[in-house]
Amino acid sequence: MRMKKLCYLLLLVTTTTFAQQGLVKESLKVKSAALGKDVEYNIYLPADYDKSNRQYPVLYLLHGYGDDETGWTQFGEAQIIADKLQGEVAPMIIVMPDAGVSWYINSYDGKVKYEDFFIKEFIPYIDANYRTRPTKQYRAVAGLSMGGYGTLIMATKHPELFSSAAPLSSGVFTDEEIINGDPNMWNNVMGNLYGKKDLTGKDRLTEHYNKNSILKIIETANADELKKVRFYIDCGDKDFLIKGNMALHAALIDKKIPHEFRVREGVHNWTYWRTALPEVLKFISVSFHQQ
């Protein structure tokens, strides 16, 4: 009799634990007219998504250079972290789209229009196909490295769409870093985004670069509009991108844009980003709860 009772209790605990886990659907596809192809995405649905009719806020969580839609679940353990924080943060849908190496912008030659896809197609698709709360207050964006840059692009160019933004180790570069940057970096990465290959020195500061330089966007943007977004910035003290992130911090101070800025011990790796994500989810949750 005692053994039956013990088995029942173990089954109850196991069932309860399982029921508290959110669901991750991997490598789903959405058709994109802007990109002329299908785009894959992962999505995390809160534990009670299938048991309720409620609508949920949404976090768009962006991957870094060389990763894809699976990066944040495979290496970042986003679903495990979100599950552990149940009761501490607002239940939310987390959407993780593949962006290739687009840096989340429209390329200078118009061949890759990722920003158009994300803003005009992807967000409307998610709102139409999942039970989201489709307003600015209940939408946030965060990401690491290239995805941190993408986070800032979306939040500073489209502040009317997001309540909060949390770039981690974001790919922000000063003009000096672009001018003096390694030719291979320009030819293999930046040139595809901002201008032709083999540009050197100040010629790299093309019109398209200026339109998509985070520091220039902040410098020229309407401060009142940027203040409508809550910013959380985090970068490791030994990260190779720390200089750009410090410049970002300074630019926001100069513009009098409120923001939280964190520099912790660490480098550019998943250990750092996994430890950052719980605080990001807590920060974003506050935005979702504000009236």
TrEMBL record:
<dbReference type="InterPro" id="IPR000801">
    <property type="entry name" value="Esterase-like"/>
</dbReference>
<dbReference type="GO" id="GO:0016747">
    <property type="term" value="F:acyltransferase activity, transferring groups other than amino-acyl groups"/>
</dbReference>
<dbReference type="GO" id="GO:0016787">
    <property type="term" value="F:hydrolase activity"/>
</dbReference>
<keyword id="KW-0378">Hydrolase</keyword>
<dbReference type="InterPro" id="IPR050583">
    <property type="entry name" value="Mycobacterial_A85_antigen"/>
</dbReference>
<dbReference type="Pfam" id="PF00756">
    <property type="entry name" value="Esterase"/>
</dbReference>
<feature type="signal peptide">
    <location>
        <begin position="1"/>
        <end position="19"/>
    </location>
</feature>
<protein>
    <submittedName>
        <fullName>S-formylglutathione hydrolase FrmB</fullName>
    </submittedName>
</protein>
<keyword id="KW-0732">Signal</keyword>
<dbReference type="InterPro" id="IPR029058">
    <property type="entry name" value="AB_hydrolase_fold"/>
</dbReference>
